[in-house]
Write a structure and sequence with these properties.
The structure is a single chain. The chain is an alpha+beta fold. It has a single domain, classed as Cytochrome p450. The chain has 17 helices and twelve strands. The strands form four sheets. Strands 1-2-10-7-3 form a five-stranded mixed sheet. Strands 4-12-11 form a three-stranded antiparallel sheet. A hairpin with a 2-residue loop joins β5 and β6. It is globular, with a radius of gyration of 21 Å. The termini are far apart.
Length: about 400
């Protein structure tokens, strides 16, 4: 079917509100061919959830096929720094490498380590909110949403405070490559950021080998199982992934969530009246306007969805934003409800690629929303925000508020 009217990820109007288009896609069927990106769109919650767990699909195909065997053109040689960095991270690996690296990273990135960060995260969030309040308001994203997760992951990795301003621009340039059909200028920025970030981390890893500390990089260096260790490239790619995936999602969940709350004053009032609702509210805000709208998978062996055969070599686009608004997922899905108890959203993924940093993301979001509710109880919106042009990673340019 022609999906051009229902799915237009390069249209500012669609990016601003994709949900009516998603509803039409779900009503029209379970799978749709989208020629502009050469992908099969999957909009229903049950299908997205099942395919995330289906081992006939993968984030990469290079563990089984060459580019040529899979019917794909190799990326340009000049893009190598990005693809080496991206291709050695957990997000774009499959078994057995994914299994090995996730096991080793999990030995360092433990729930205990994350829980130990809780006082630091709350302190950082409180300081940032206090700064916003002292100014009488400003851009909530620039003042609170962006610096908090960068500071937290930098603290975890042991990145010196003087260097932390480098991280956000590197991350933004690399993440540009995750959009649909990125252009050559986007690729050029991503390649440069990948090379610079990798070089910086190699120096930091060398320093931690000589002078270990109580940080995640030091823990990754010693993480081992029998004779199995992370290579230096795997460590570099893991650190970049922790920053990119961790803070991009948290920044946009914070901004998107506050915009949703301002548009639903009854829900904001309920949350202000009962901070005990915060854990449920965090899950609902992740569901309602997820920062990751689309997750891609390669079809490694033929699959069938609702009678449509999707052949090996194809790419599917799993529409998280649509799945989270599927009436089969939650009742009355277009209604924001901070009291919602049963919330099987897919914003953190599923299967072997379920977000490794989910506990840290929830900790940061609870601290950010919680400190804002406590320290800026009169927070109000100044101006309706605009969306950034990206669709896959979807967030606001700014969110202007008064305290």
């Amino acid at each position: 079917m022609d999906t051009s009217c229902d799915f237009d990820p390069w249209s500012p109007r669609f990016v601003a509100d994709p949900y009516p288009g998603y509803a039409r896609l779900r009503a029209a069927g379970r799978v749709h061919w989208f020629a502009p990106s050469r992908q099969w769109l999957v909009p229903h919650h049950a299908d997205v959830r099942a395919l995330l767990r289906d081992r006939r699909l993968g984030r990469t195909y290079l563990h089984r096929f060459t580019h040529e065997e899979f019917g794909r053109t190799p990326p340009p040689a000049g893009h190598e720094p990005f693809h080496v960095l991206n291709g050695n991270g957990l997000l774009d690996l499959e078994a057995p490498d994914h299994t090995r690296i996730r096991r080793l990273v999990s030995k360092a990135f433990t729930p205990r380590r994350v829980e130990a960060l809780a006082p630091t995260v709350r302190r950082l969030a409180g300081d940032l909110v206090d700064g916003l309040v002292a100014e009488g308001g400003g851009d909530l994203i620039a003042a609170v949403a962006e610096p908090l997760p960068v500071a937290v992951i930098a603290e975890m990795l042991g990145i010196p405070a003087a260097d932390r301003a480098l991280l956000r621009p590197w991350s933004a340039d690399i993440c540009g490559m995750y959009e649909l059909n990125p252009g050559e200028e986007t690729a050029r920025r991503a390649v440069r950021a990948s090379a610079d970030f990798s070089a910086y981390l190699r120096e930091l890893i060398a320093d931690r080998r000589a002078r270990p500390g109580d940080d995640l990089i030091s823990a990754l260096i010693v993480a081992c199982e029998e004779e199995d260790r992370l290579t230096e490239q795997e460590m570099v790619s893991t650190c970049v992934l922790l920053l990119n995936a961790g803070h991009e999602a948290t920044v946009n969940t914070t901004g998107n969530g506050w915009w949703a709350l301002f548009r639903h004053p009854d829900q904001l009032a309920a949350l202000r009246g009962d901070h005990g609702l915060l854990p449920r509210a965090v899950e609902e805000l992740m569901r309602y306007d997820t920062p990751l709208q689309l997750f891609e998978r390669w079809v490694l062996d033929d699959i069938e969805v609702a009678g449509t055969v999707i052949p090996r070599g194809s790419e599917v686009a799993l529409l998280f934003g649509s799945a989270n608004r599927d009436p089969a997922c939650v009742p009355d899905p277009d209604r924001l409800d901070v009291t919602r108890a049963d919330n099987p959203h897919l914003s953190l993924g599923a299967g072997i690629h379920y977000c490794l940093g989910a506990p840290l993301a929830r900790l940061e979001l609870a601290a950010s929303y919680g400190e804002m509710l406590r320290r800026a109880p009169g927070l109000r919106l100044v101006k309706e925000p605009q969306w950034k042009p990206g669709f896959v990673i979807r967030g606001l340019r700014e969110l202007l508020v008064e305290c």
